[in-house]
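pasting for ref. prot 1 ->
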Amino acid sequence: MAGSLVVLGCFYTGSWAFFKTHSVDFIAAQHQAHAEQRRRAPASCTLDTLLNFTSDAAAATQKYQVQGWSHPETWGTWTDGAVAELAMRLTPAPSGPLRLMTRIQSAMTHRQQPIQEIEILANDTIIGHAFFQAGDPPLDLNSLIPATALNNEGMLRLVFRIAHPSSPKALGMSEDPRQLGILVNQIRISTVAVDAP
């Protein structure tokens, strides 16, 4: 009898541990802790490196993704939700302004919301604003990151604010439940040439 109780106790303890570590709250907490770690100690990124968000090269860019990014696909990676964030430590640490090129392959638009709007921030400084309509061709959005938005350690936090993320499932377009905004294909951060006097 005592042995049966021990086995039963172990079963309940194991079941509790399994469901605890696989619960929605536990997984969300793990994602949050992972995001905070990437913000505090971001991966290094060499200036003028082309970051490719397509499925065949996304392994090199996923280490910069903090939150708000879906899985990589053939044409790029969709933002998922109202905010998509990247964090990186630029090398060498920049001493002047930078140029951010974001190639946006597509945007989520629909009849009720025919225009998608995004805002880009670098270390909490607004550096870009863009609008997209259905059928627009891919766009290379160029934004200037001022030197005042950067620090001596080269830490850079890029945030894409999506005004109208939408779920294809809610719109009756497909079974896709993601809150899609823009499909990012490539990003490049480059130094800005300063003309000599």
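and prot 2 ->
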Amino acid sequence: MDLQPKIGIGLNYMHLGEYMQFHIRDKYLEALFANDALPILIPPIEDKDVLRQYINMVSALIIIGGLDYPPELYGEKPHPKTEPMERRRAISDFYLLDLILETGKPVLGICAGMQLMNIYFGGKLIQHLDNLDIHYGEKMHDIYVQKDSCWLSKIIPEGKITVNSNHHQCVDPAYIGKGLKVAALSPDGCIEALEYNSEQMILGIQWHPERMQDIEHRNCLFNFIINFNL
């Protein structure tokens, strides 16, 4: 079977064992395969011309979760609990977002990927949450989708859904990036989704749909972005 379309997905870059390695959890790829898409793995590269070739190959981009984006990117000093990712990945992700915005193709940011979107558009993060009992350790909680959201309300029309949660940072509601709007909130007010105010689908979500045991939940999100331009 010819799997279409091709979906770009950025890899992590991290120290595993004795070596620096490109890395991605299998659940991301399984979710794409399950929805008849062909993942195009994009290694973190600090060369925009090379990354542009990847973007030209794909119909959409997914920016995955991972460690924390370096806080100097949004003008802050590191919190003691901040675990910065390798700068190589952070730079590559910024380039990828820059390039995908030039094309009009859809982009989905998952967990840290959503936080990147906020940083990219001039926002900031809360580097360490006080209420980790709700948000860290694959905890489950409800989120409430804003009725006026452009994309998420189409994906989750019921307006409320239970999600998994595994993050110790979040978007700072006092510093939301220019052009972004809140698309979903948790009961304690944590920002769970962001959208950019444009016709291009630019959606960030704080949870991990690729790891949800609710397959319908997983598929509705991945299927939406995969088939967005078909």
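The helical segments are 26-34, 48-57, 87-103, 112-120, 132-135, 152-155, 215-226.
The two ends are 18 Å apart (CA to CA).
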